[in-house]
Amino acid sequence: MLLDTYQQQERFWLKTLFGTPSREGLQVFRGEFVVLEGELKASTGKRTPSKAVLKQAVMVGDETRLQMVVGNFASIDELPEFVARFHDVLAPECRPVLFIDNVAESAEVEIQGHPYVLIQHSDGVVWNALTECCYLDKQDLKGLSGEDKVIRVFEALADYRPGLPSRDLETMLATKTEAKRTTWGAV
After folding, report:
1. pLDDT, tens digit, for every residue of 62-118?
2. Any idea what DSSP says for residue 119?
3. What is the DSSP annotation of 38-99?
4. Closest Cα partner for 75 from 176, 152, 143?
5. Distance (Å, rounded) from C-alpha 2 to C-alpha 28?
6. Which of 107, 85, 90, 89 is nearest to 98 (CA)?
7. Do the strands 46-47 and 52-61 form a parallel or antiparallel pair, or are they unpaired?
8. Measured by CB atoms within 10 angstroms of the end CB, which terminus of the chain is less buried, N or C?
9. How far from the centroid of its chain's Cα atoms is residue 151's Cα?
10. Of residues 134, 2, 109, the one with CA closest to residue 62
């Protein structure tokens, strides 16, 4: 399975969920997904911090393709790194939904013939925003395993039509803002 390959490549960081749902032929992942690794330091044998990470990622994969990709990039500058490394393994029906801290506006972007949904989002939890986009509430997910909750969202996402303006990637990159994610937690 493709997600097993990513686990072997150590692309999963802060793994929240990784497993097989009741729907055969699929695997799901939730956590941090390393898009671009940091440099390997020869003196210590350790890597510097990752240069691009899809935070709060929610992914569904089959044997060879990513069927669903959702997550948060701190900067739209990380998107070209994702496209360079993972665009070729996106299933034809996969429409990545990316919540990005520093985009000036939400938009749909076609990249190499594939639609990407970019949503302006600098605070909150991606999972909550995703379930809102799919018009799902806690009742819709109640009683399901963690893996099957992801599959339920995956199925609902197929009907998601954001109605956002179309932009090109160059415009989105050129109009990025200085916005940074709002932090929360202990003060």
Report:
1. 999 999 999 999 999 999 999 999 999 999 999 999 999 999 999 999 999 889 999
2. E
3. PPEETTTTEEPPPSEEEEEEEEEE-SS-EEEEEEEES-GGGHHHHHHHHGGGB-TT---EEE
4. 176
5. 10
6. 107
7. unpaired
8. C
9. 15
10. 2
Q: Which of 15, 19, 17, 21 is nearest to 34 (CA)?
A: 15
pTM of the model: 0.90
Q: 175 is written with which tokens?
A: 């109009």
Rounded Cα gap, residues 153 and 1, in angstroms: 20
Which among 133, 96, 100 has a CA at the least distance from the CA of 112? 96
Phi, psi (rounded to 5 degrees) for 130: -65, -45
